[in-house]
Amino acid sequence: MAEKGASEGRSRGITVVLDANAIISDYRLSTAAAIALLSNSTIGTVAVGVPEVALEEAVNKFREEATKAVGDIDRHLQVLKRLGVEADLNIKSVDELCASYETAVKARLRKWGVTVLRYPAVSHGELGRRAVAKRTPFDQQGRGYRDALVWHTVVELVGSRDVWLISADNDFRTSGSEDLAPSLVDDIKTAHRQAADVRLFRSIKDCVNALGETIVQPKADITKRLRDDAGYLNRVQAAMEAGLMYKPIDPADLTLPSALADEASIDGIDVADVYVSEARLTSTGELLVRIDSIVEVELELLIDKTEVAEVEGNYDKTFSIDDWDWNPRYIMARSAVRLNVELFGIADRNSLDFQKIDVDRYSVIQA
């Protein structure tokens, strides 16, 4: 049995969205900051996405710069030729350079698990009206079509995820501030989210630093506390016990003969392992923590007496009969299984003490 998590909708993940200028500043995404961000994507700390329009803009900018660079080289070669200097430089054509770059950057994004985000489902009419009204991210001359597509991609994502947009463009910002422009805040509210669910960063480095404060360090702090403080670990284990004892398990998830039971419930718990899978400091100051655990549990089983022939001689040391005549209809048996258990908690960022922690979901992993 896999229970649906009670924390659904509260423990929202983060999607980092790269605008074109974030890629243009590091075409190969090879700086230390870029690698740190992509690494977080690989291990599941955050999701990273690039709007298709932003990737196309970055490739086009690469073409512009390559065209200029190749032209400059040709001019310098002509100067060398006049000076009587033979220079043999094998430079690919601009088309070859651009095709090679586009293939390489897409392969790098795939390697690191980065999603290329499709064009948003916004109508030409809506974009046209926004441009005519000079509504951000369109400027006072009505320019900003690509920025508007990036922004509508953000709006589509924010319904289910917090979005961190890396863009140096001021068009997304309130004048003289790093805050979202007021009209963009209105868009977020229309999507039934809060302005704090979208954050802006000028560079990949700024975003990575914020990830460290928001996700990486809190996770490390909770992990260390669980390892070093037996009382802290005991409180987590007590929450697990309170959330699991006497809870049902679907017999269909069990192997024979346990699967013959009409009812199966948890009657004993032994925690085998505990680890922090996620910790995130929200914009409101809450520290949301998800803890995974492998738990050995003992099950109490009620098996109809008509199934006795299937039970007898068909079990191993993990299965035992408690009472062949528990009541007129059932025999009582016991079985041991392993569960994957997820806990969801809210902790104080400074003390790390849990204000609340509960079992969020559980499922059989070994029967």
Secondary-structure blueprint of this entry?
Blueprint: E1 14-18, H1 20-24, H2 32-42, E2 47-51, H3 52-82, H4 94-111, E3 115-117, H5 124-132, H6 145-158, E4 162-166, H7 182-190, E5 198-201, H8 204-228, H9 230-244, E6 263-281, E7 287-304, H10 308-311, E8 319-323, E9 330-347, E10 354-366
Parallel strand pairs: 1-2, 1-4, 2-3, 4-5
Antiparallel strand pairs: 6-7, 7-9, 8-9, 9-10
Any idea what the shape is? elongated
Supply the number of helical segments: 10
The helix content, as a percent range, equals 25-40%
How many separate domains make up the residues? 2
Largest sheet report = 5 strands, parallel
Strand segment count? 10
Compute the CA-based radius of gyration: 29 Å
Mean pLDDT: 89
As a percent range, the share of strand residues is 25-35%
The helix/strand series, from N terminus to C terminus, equals EHHEHHEHHEHEHHEEHEEE
Query: What is the terminal-to-terminal distance?
Result: 12 Å
- How do the strands line up in the largest sheet? 3-2-1-4-5
Structural class: alpha/beta
- Poorly predicted residue ranges: 1-6
